[in-house]
């Protein structure tokens, strides 16, 4: 069963140093919980890539195809030939294509934001009440007891005041 090993720190510098040591030791699932914004956390933990732009692109692409198909399908289903002009004409269909591109791109961006923000939460996240007040928390996910002991040693050597083990419930 997976265990979250959590270390509580007084100062942000020591918490970031501990997170850096854990990352250097090969722990991938390391996170820092802080009551204030921490400058330099991206350098220690690494920047996360945003998936929102992919949601926007594919939503806009879907909207473009859907908008043109909607206009062209409507023109083909209700034939109204006038003056020898073609049934599917590009310039008037570009308006609905453009509008559907924007609409679907915006909706996909909102969905991408919700997915990226992990809202609603699909799994239980680590929560330490002291992190909302005055403590800085470094959390690391450990697969077995050996990793757990190693993470505890790293956190203690970095200056953690308290170390807790939070077990994940099987869902």
Explain what this protein looks like in three dimensions:
The protein is rod-shaped, with a radius of gyration of 26 Å. 20% of the residues are buried. It is an alpha+beta fold. Helix 1 (12-24) packs antiparallel against helix 5 and helix 3 (52-77) packs antiparallel against helix 4 (90-116). It has helices at 12-24, 41-45, 52-77, 90-116, 145-158, and strands at residues 3-9, 30-33, 136-142, 162-167. The termini are close together. It has a four-stranded antiparallel sheet with strand order 2-3-1-4, with helices on one face.
Q: What class do helices, strands and sheet pairing give?
A: alpha+beta
Order of adjacent strands in the largest pleated sheet = 2-3-1-4
Strand content: 5-15%
Fraction of helical residues: 40-55%
Number of strands: 4
Shape: rod-shaped
* Number of discrete helical segments: 5
- Biggest sheet descriptor: 4 strands, antiparallel
Separation of the first and last Cα atoms: 12 Å
- The mean pLDDT is 90
Give me the secondary-structure topology.
Elements: E1 3-9, H1 12-24, E2 30-33, H2 41-45, H3 52-77, H4 90-116, E3 136-142, H5 145-158, E4 162-167
Antiparallel strand pairs: 1-3, 1-4, 2-3
Task: Write a concise synopsis of the structure shown.
This protein has 171 residues and is α+β, with helices and mostly antiparallel strands.
Notable characteristics:
rod-shaped, alpha+beta, four-stranded antiparallel β-sheet, 171 residues, 5 helices
